[in-house]
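Incident log, support desk, overnight shift.

02:14 A customer reports that sequence design results differ from what the structure should imply. Their input is reproduced verbatim below. On-call engineer (initials T.W.) acknowledged and began investigating.
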């Protein structure tokens, strides 16, 4: 099976603003970084890939699955970790939160809870099963969301600013877990240093690709431009 994200001629309008206009992109590398300023379209791009945003025109497929129209196929193919775990967690306890996605894949409640328990054990967090999610720190809630995604065994995992609002220990812990993942990874971040070792970097500016290539080339160019803009705003 061809492991690739294909975005073909996508036009997307959000709240009267044209975010993408005939945008096309193909992604197949194991580790892909996306950088850009706020409002550039980075998060919207991830939502398109996850099938959570509907374009006005064009098509998005992940490993051949039309993620917008085939929701069951999308659940088996791509998972997304939002910037704020509180926008993602909907159940009181950790075990319920992890089991939910597995039930959405068609598993029985009993099987889903058993698989959720296995996922927690694999992450070394068996003692979290009956913990109330709101009692966990932000970094811990972020980890719960990641465990829930990985339990569904997607081919692609999307991260929207996974290091935002985390202290250094939590940031390093999430960074290590991302580095060890088997699925393809796409990470949106404002911190180029966290993705310097990736296979490919894409700089998005106003819904267009400003640069695309090796991180060693794209990230310094992006950082230099951000420094230039910061100087103009001072």
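02:41 Re-run completed on a clean worker. Output:
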């Amino acid at each position: 099976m061809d492991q690739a994200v294909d975005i073909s001629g996508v036009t997307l309008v959000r709240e009267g603003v044209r975010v993408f206009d005939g945008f096309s992109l193909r992604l197949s590398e194991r580790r892909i970084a996306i950088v850009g300023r706020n409002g550039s379209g980075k998060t919207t791009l991830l939502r398109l890939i996850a099938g959570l945003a509907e374009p006005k025109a064009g098509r998005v497929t992940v490993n051949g699955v039309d993620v917008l129209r085939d929701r069951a196929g999308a659940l088996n193919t791509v998972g997304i970790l939002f910037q704020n775990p509180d926008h993602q967690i909907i159940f009181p306890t950790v075990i319920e939160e992890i089991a939910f996605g597995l039930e959405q894949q068609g598993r029985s409640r009993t099987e889903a809870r058993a698989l959720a328990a296995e996922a927690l054990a694999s992450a070394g967090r068996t003692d979290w099963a009956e913990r109330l999610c709101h009692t966990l720190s932000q970094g811990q809630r972020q980890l719960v969301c990641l465990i829930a995604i990985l339990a569904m065994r997607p081919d692609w995992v999307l991260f929207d600013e996974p290091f935002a609002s985390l202290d250094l220990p939590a940031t390093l812990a999430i960074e290590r877990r991302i580095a060890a993942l088997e699925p393809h990874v796409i990470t949106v971040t404002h911190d180029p240093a966290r993705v310097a070792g990736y296979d490919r970097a894409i700089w998005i500016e106003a819904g267009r690709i400003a640069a695309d290539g090796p991180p060693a080339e794209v990230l310094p160019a992006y950082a230099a431009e951000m420094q230039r803009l910061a100087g103009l705003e001072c």
